[in-house]
Write a structure and sequence with these properties.
- This protein has 75 residues and is mostly beta strands.
- 11% of the residues lie in helices and 33% in strands.
- It contains one helix and five strands; from the N terminus they run βββββα.
- The protein has one helix at 60-67; strands at 8-11, 21-28, 37-41, 46-49, 55-58.
- A hairpin with an 8-residue loop joins β2 and β3.
């Protein structure tokens, strides 16, 4: 998993009814975009995070495409 500053990490809910948790990468602490990351949660607090297999990186270019109505999630 590789991320850059400004990317979003989406941690998918593990049980029915649990919503995805979205955080913004504010600093990459690993080498070459690898974890750990300093992330900011929607409520403003920050934490150090090493994402697991239930996480997905939404890169900035994918986010822009989603806003324009593109197909960023399509393989």
């Amino acid at each position: 998993m590789r991320a850059s500053k400004g990317d979003r990490l989406v941690q998918h809910g593990r049980v029915v009814g649990q919503h995805d948790q979205v955080t913004e990468v504010v600093e990459v602490l690993g080498s070459e975009g690898n974890p750990p990351y300093r992330v900011r949660f929607e409520d403003g607090h920050e934490a150090i995070m090493s994402p697991g297999p239930d996480c997905q990186v939404k890169h900035r270019d994918e986010q822009a495409m989603d806003q324009r109505g593109g197909f960023a999630d399509r393989p």
